[in-house]
Design brief:
The chain is 75% helix and 0% strand. By secondary structure, it is mainly α.
Length: 102
Amino acid sequence: MSIALFVSEQYLLENSVINENVAYTQIRPTLVKVQDMHIQPALGSALYQQVQGQVVSGSVSALNTTLLEDYMQMGEQSKQERKVTCEWVSNRNKKEKSHANG
């Protein structure tokens, strides 16, 4: 089975510190390892292989499209949710510190 990457070159350029001077082919092996180390354990082997197969075939189901776009590639909604969660955790930590000091 071919190995599909869940992020495109364009996505990486727009959403990371990697710039256009880095050849995608140079970082592809690292991306594959990162997927195997972090995404596969989170999804489980069966779902990971299902998504891989669908991406390779170019026929991704609606549910797996949502998974890819909103969670694995951090779509705009997920970015906003992550920001809200980070703000909530930060505020909670501030409250806990003020109660401990006070």
